[in-house]
Automatic annotation (TrEMBL), chain A:
The lineage of its organism: Bacteria, Bacillati, Actinomycetota, Actinomycetes, Propionibacteriales. GO terms for cellular component: plasma membrane. Residues 4-246 form the ABC transporter domain. The keyword ATP-binding applies. Keywords: Antibiotic resistance, ATP-binding, Nucleotide-binding, Transport. Its main location: membrane. It is a peripheral membrane protein. The keyword Nucleotide-binding applies. It comes from Nocardioides antri. GO terms for biological process: response to antibiotic. This is ABC transporter ATP-binding protein. It is found in: Cell membrane. One of its GO terms (molecular function) is ATP hydrolysis activity.
Automatic annotation (TrEMBL), chain B:
Its main location: membrane. The chain crosses the membrane at residues 6-26, 47-69, 89-111, 123-142, 168-188. GO terms for molecular function: ABC-type transporter activity. This is ABC transporter permease. Keywords: Membrane, Transmembrane, Transmembrane helix. InterPro entries: ABC2_TM (IPR013525), Nod_factor_ABC_transporter (IPR051784). It is a multi-pass membrane protein. It comes from Nocardioides antri. Pfam families: ABC2_membrane (PF01061). Residues 9-160 form the ABC-2 type transporter transmembrane domain. It is found in: Membrane. GO terms for cellular component: membrane.
Length: 322, 205
């Protein structure tokens, strides 16, 4: 059964600038987005900054009215059945904001329990369970202003789950969290699917999407450019293999020379401390390693590695296409 | 002095409610919690009215504190002919100010700069509600504006009860006008939230 259904969703923002001479500007943030999310599915929405991910989510959670198109959550229209949609969804976003800093975590959760209509008799037990789930038991009486970013993020998740929503919208929940915290967060998200929740997740971290998502839609400039399982998306790209060459002190001319090697589609340079890693996206069956090393004559070369394209390679190619 | 003393007592309640109520949702917007409050299945009234009632409660403290300061620091002893009617009038002022505060607060859902409305109402309110000068001394064209604020009638009721007169007509008008603001705010709340969803003004960005 479909949990979330978006049909040709569009959203245009109109802004006005100037005091005496008012000039209007229109920005089409979302341009005809359509997708379905099945119940119990973890669906990823990936895209660069400004691609329209958050705007799409905000339309689905009733915070923004679509300019055109329609969307339904658990069969309820996000424009006409606002109250019914809100009862059934949870919304968690990344970052430091969205909590009452001067209140303790416990008081934050009590307040949002009231807002989300959690019966008073159930509140205490529910809050206790969620604090346990997100690992904040024992710290719940401390003011949020003293919390680390990871603790805040976990509190956000607890807040989003207070009323036991069937569908959860997670907008970049792991942004700014340290690796250990991010791993714990991924485990928490995975456990939500185990208990039957439907999750829409946006993230910039490809390994996170690859690990968690059943299906992914890649959004670019307000349009979905690809949709499918992580494996399906990896097969969509034209890259046959990826060669990574560790170098020290490589110059621009050498990088340009590599681009000219037969079979090399593109070259990217990734700075890692003193080292530059050259990432060569190669055509299928192309043997480029020897030719590439020959072009790096005089450059100190470290490890050379050939690997299959990752979801990140697929993502970069999908969002870079003109 | 009795006139100024009573006006000063209620003035604190007005300032407390007007300025803070109109910036309530702006603070939520800055904290990033406004979207969460709007996305909850609870009406804006259930969120805002308890808060404006709390502000009125703090306002009641300012009434008591002002009366005590007037007595102990400035040597001004207010003559209150009927304490029960005086307390009833002050409570009516607090209740209707909470209703008026709800109206001020709800406008901030739609307009990001509406907090400035409360700040700009503070000093004119002192004159319009008759805290520092009698409303009758204001220019005629300002009278309808004064009468449209429930606190004007609450202030009249406070003075009447202190002077031994009957405050009931003023109390009735005060409660009627206050309730009208509450009903208007409930209706406007829904309209303004929809407008904010259309114009994307719930968040700062």
């Amino acid at each position: 059964m479909t949990a979330v259904e978006a049909r040709d969703l569009r959203r245009t923002f109109r802004t006005r600038t100037g005091v005496l001479r008012r000039t209007a500007k229109e920005v089409e943030a979302v341009r005809g987005v359509s997708f379905d999310i099945q119940r119990g599915e973890l669906f990823g929405l990936l895209g660069p900054n400004g691609a329209g991910k958050t705007t799409t989510i905000k339309m689905l959670i009733t915070l923004l009215l679509p300019t055109a198109g329609s969307a339904r959550v658990l069969g309820h229209d996000v424009v006409d059945d606002v109250r019914e949609v809100r009862r059934r969804i949870g919304y968690v976003f990344g970052g430091d904001r969205g909590l009452y800093e001067r209140l303790s975590a416990l008081d934050n959760l009590r307040y949002f329990s009231e807002l989300y209509g959690v019966p008073p008799r159930e509140q205490k037990a529910r809050i206790g369970e969620l604090l346990e789930l997100v690992g904040l038991t024992g710290r719940e009486r401390e003011r949020v202003e003293g919390y680390s970013r990871g603790m805040r993020q976990r509190l956000h998740i607890a807040r989003g789950l207070l009323h036991d929503p069937e569908v959860l919208f997670l907008d970049e929940p792991s942004i700014g969290i340290d690796p250990v915290g991010a791993r714990e967060l991924r485990a928490t998200i995975a456990s939500l699917i185990d208990v039957g929740k439907t999750v829409l997740l946006t993230t910039h971290y490809m390994f996170e999407a690859d690990e968690l998502c059943d299906r992914i839609a890649v959004i670019r400039a307000g349009e979905i450019v690809a949709e499918g399982t992580p494996q399906h998306l990896k097969r969509l790209v034209s890259v046959g293999s990826v060669v990574e060459i560790e170098t020290y002190g490589v110059g621009e001319p050498a990088v340009e020379a590599l681009s000219a090697v037969a079979g090399v589609q593109s070259v990217a340079v990734e700075e890692r401390g003193q080292m530059q890693v050259l990432i060569l996206h190669c055509e299928t069956d192309a043997q480029v390693t020897q030719a590439a090393l020959a072009r790096l004559d005089g450059v100190r070369v470290g490890r050379v590695d050939t690997r299959e394209p990752t979801l990140e390679d697929a993502y970069v190619e999908l969002v870079s296409r003109a | 002095m009795q006139f100024a003393g009573l006006g000063a007592a209620v003035m604190g309640m007005w300032t407390c409610q007007g300025v803070i109520a109109s910036s309530l949702l702006t603070r939520e917007r800055w904290a990033g919690t406004l979207e969460l409050v709007v996305a909850a299945p609870t009406s804006m009234g259930r969120v805002l009215v308890p808060t404006t009632l709390a502000l009125s409660t703090i306002g009641l403290y300012t009434v008591i504190a002002t009366i005590l300061w007037e007595r102990w620091v400035f040597g001004l002893e207010l003559r209150i002919e009927s304490w029960p009617l005086f307390v009833t009038s002050v409570l009516a002022a607090a209740l209707t100010l909470a209703q008026f505060g709800f109206f001020l607060a709800v406008t901030a859902v739609r307009y990001r700069s509406s907090w400035s409305l409360g700040a700009s109402l503070e000093y004119p309110g002192w004159l319009l509600c008759g805290f520092v000068i009698p409303v009758a001394t204001l220019p005629d064209w300002l009278h309808p504006l004064s009468w449209s604020i429930p606190t004007t009638w609450a202030m009249e009721a406070v003075r009447e009860s202190a002077d031994g007169g009957s405050p009931w007509r003023d109390l009735l008008l005060c409660l009627l006008i206050g309730s009208a603001y509450a009903v208007l705010a409930s209706f406007l709340g829904r309209q303004l939230v929809d407008s904010a969803r259309r114009h994307a003004t719930l968040a700062l960005t």
